[in-house]
Specification:
By secondary structure, the chain is an alpha/beta fold. The chain contains 20 helices and 16 strands. It has two domains: 3-352, TIM Barrel; 378-548, Rossmann fold (3-Layer(aba) Sandwich). It is 38% helix and 13% strand. It is globular, with a radius of gyration of 24 Å.
């Protein structure tokens, strides 16, 4: 990487901004050059943590648990004043539960794929980007280019735009373009492609099992399109791609399964040389077991940079990690030239985003954004099947409702959230009873049985499945099916494949997102006030013919 390369896509910098990059790089001390390689998590607004960030002097941070936009901007401005170079401030802008504090509730990618309206995706992405910029965010680890191929995958699930390559391409590329148009750099992920392995790289190194031809027709197509469209960064994940490695090293053995995040062949040979990517490569989160299960941290941390990544994502022990980099520099596993290359790319990204000059926050119309989100949500809930023609609901025929709730499971919270939908039905005039594990209720004493499941993409959970024992509270109840006697509706507000565990449930709905906005939209559709969407972005029947009946 040379300074002249910054004039090329995706940076497209003029001589003045390239001059800023040169000057910024020249002012970094040797210690700063190492700390600038890190993206650190900053939770909340604890003064002690803020001071630690200032003292460490990273090149970027990721915000979780932020306050209102004004407070966020002030915090970031204060940090930038104390740091040698303005920060890249990142987040996962994925909609639904992965949204910024105080932001309008927008659909997640799978909900947008179900709607399959590119103009709607464009407007959602515009709102999300502007709200992010207002809060000081300038880098998003999205969109997701993964393919929802293995239905048991709990990690792809609702984070991606479904299983159809053309649908993913239409929506993901549009989102990337809109984000970057509004000053939020995109990091498309998870390189070299997730979704054909149903395991979770948070827990182990996953494997892209495709042969080279199949990969080129799928992930190769998606990443080439993103690069041709000017994507500024790519997230290299803890995913192996043995077919490519073996095409270069036939007897690679275990090395064929090396995670991409520490694979020079996948980052440099495939992504940079073959696909022509000139932007920033950021590793996926380094505390993940997909990396930690491969080797010890003192070995793989320097390999992240040596193998072509330009940013190390997250650290649990900052001082130890700096020590690992220094040790690798001393023994030659890492070179000063590779560090400088990474820093030039990072600084080039900052210049491309205009961080070399004062930033102006966009004006946000919260009422308008919320109204758009509410209206859009009503178009998304998907009626997969209703073989008994139970819908629409009405108080006359379905007055007494028994609800079995799996609650809303969010990986970052110790306790699940409760659905608001039962109270929404009560406001419609229904008599709603929520089943509890110690209750002994006979579903035949009700006019409707309603199953509510709230598992969106679940990080660090190997599988999402319908846990009948937990849902019903006892061994006997777990085996009982009352839908032959009582009208029954099952609604998944997340994982779209629950028919695999309940193929004969007569009425099944996918709503993709657990937000209250989506719950209200589902109630409107249940009551017949809005039509159901009938477009499935994945195969909700999981290849089971009997699930259609």
């Amino acid at each position: 990487m040379t300074f002249d390369d910054l004039a090329k896509p995706p940076y497209n910098l003029d001589s003045q901004r390239i001059g800023w990059v040169k000057d910024a790089l020249s002012r970094l001390s040797d210690d700063d050059r190492l700390s600038q390689l890190f993206n650190l998590v900053l939770f909340g607004n604890d003064p002690g943590e803020v001071e630690r960030i200032k003292n460490f002097r990273p090149g970027s941070i990721t915000r979780f648990g932020g306050a209102d936009a004004t407070t966020e901007r002030a915090l970031i401005a204060m940090l930038n004043k104390a740091l040698p170079v303005p920060l890249l401030v990142s987040a996962d802008l994925e909609g639904s539960r992965l949204s910024l504090a105080g932001a309008a509730e927008m659909p997640n990618p799978l909900g947008l794929a179900a709607l399959d309206d590119v103009e709607a995706t464009e407007e959602v992405s515009s709102i999300m980007a502007q709200e992010a910029r207002a809060a000081g965010i300038n880098w998003s680890f999205t969109p997701v280019l993964d393919i929802n191929a293995a239905f048991r995958s709990s990690i792809v699930a609702t984070r991606g735009f479904g299983s159809d390559i053309e649908t993913i391409e239409r929506h993901a590329i549009k989102q990337m373009e809109v984000f970057q148009r509004h000053g939020v750099a995109s990091a498309v992920k998870h390189w070299p492609g997730e979704g054909f392995d149903d395991r979770d790289q948070h827990l182990l190194t996953t494997v892209n099992p495709l042969d080279l031809k199949s990969w080129e027709e799928s992930f190769g197509r998606l990443y080439r399109r993103a690069i041709d469209s000017g994507v500024l960064s790519v997230m290299s994940a803890h995913i192996a791609f043995p077919a490519f490695i073996r095409s270069l090293v036939p007897d690679a053995g275990l090395e064929a399964y090396r995670p991409a995040s520490i694979s020079r062949l996948l980052n440099e040979d495939l992504l940079r040389k073959r696909l022509g990517f000139n932007g920033v490569i950021v590793s996926d989160a380094t505390p993940m077991a997909g990396l930690g299960s491969w080797s010890k941290r003192s070995e793989h941390l320097p390999e992240i940079i040596a193998s072509g990544c330009d940013v190390i994502l997250f650290s649990d022990d900052w001082e130890a990690d700096i020590g690992y980099l220094k040790a690798a520099l001393a023994d030659g596993r890492l070179t000063a030239a590779r560090i400088e290359d990474a820093l030039i790319r990072q600084l080039g990204l900052k210049a491309a985003l205009g961080l070399d000059r004062p930033q102006t926050a966009p004006t946000i119309d919260k009422a308008s954004n919320n109204a758009f989100g509410e209206a859009l949500a009503r178009r998304i809930p998907t009626l997969v099947k209703d073989v008994t023609e139970t819908l629409p609901l009405n108080v006359r025929d379905h007055r007494r409702v028994l609800v079995f709730s799996g609650d809303i499971v969010i990986p970052f919270l110790r306790e699940p959230l409760q659905f608001a939908l039962p109270d929404m039905l009560r406001q419609e005039g229904f008599e709603v009873t929520v089943h509890t594990p110690d209750s002994d209720l006979d579903p035949r004493n009700f006019d409707l049985v309603l199953y509510l499941l709230g598992d969106e993409t679940l990080l660090t959970r190997g599988r999402v499945f319908l846990d009948w024992l937990k849902l019903t509270g006892s061994f006997g109840n777990a085996m009982h099916r009352s839908w032959h006697e009582v009208p029954t509706v099952m609604i998944s507000f997340g994982y779209p494949y629950l028919l695999y565990d309940a193929p004969r449930v007569p009425t099944y709905i996918n709503a993709y997102s657990t937000t209250e906005t989506m719950q209200r939209a589902v109630v409107d559709a249940l009551m017949g006030r809005v039509p159901w969407n009938r477009n499935n972005p994945v195969d909700p029947f999981c290849g089971l013919d009997d699930a259609r009946f």
